[in-house]
What does this fold into?
Amino acid sequence: MKIGFSVIVTYILAVSVFSLSLILASAVSAQETSLIGSDGKPVVIGAKKKPRKSGLCLDYGKTRLGNGRPYRVVEPTRTITSHEGIDFCKRAGSPVISPADGRIRYIEWDNKTYGGVVGITTEFSVKPREGMSKSRVFVEMVHIVPLKNLKRGQLVRAGQIVGHVQEANRPSIGKTPHVHFAVRRCDDWPTCHLDPNFFWRDGARKVSCFDKNKAIPKGRMVAPIPC
Ligand SMILES: [Zn+2]
It folds into this structure.
């Protein structure tokens, strides 16, 4: 599918409008906030700040890469014009953990473009807005080396190691090893991506690090790397 320039500009504009509408909104929480805008695209809120220890290096919805160039990755079937997840930059070999209790949904061992992926179906659903049905939330961690003994369908607990950060040895990883963390409610693009910042354990926009002594309320999660 070839996407024209005007479509890209429209999409970038739409993302900006969503950001603005969220700045105007108050009392954001995973349960109460409409996650999807009136046109069916995910609402972007962004992290409150970049917690340095978490390694967050590219937030959701960014339309520019760290080097200032527009975020536009062309793949065989689509053109990405905005960042659809949150990147956590960590050294290659750093552990990657499950952000919530769930079940292994899929494992991709080492795709030649983007490397390894682990997808996990969480135990909770979101109802994006009135009139839409609830859908189960799943997460995926991309550019990682999955644990060798990981199996599809396996139950995992929040904080459990599921893989390690991959070397920057595949084209879409770029120069810096990182985990691309996405939260989704279905497989289609782009309406299925949700801003992970809605779901943090400590509250919307507060990137939360796993702590075995802190319970994770239902519908919430932690960063996919120990921090
Ligand atoms: Zn990314």
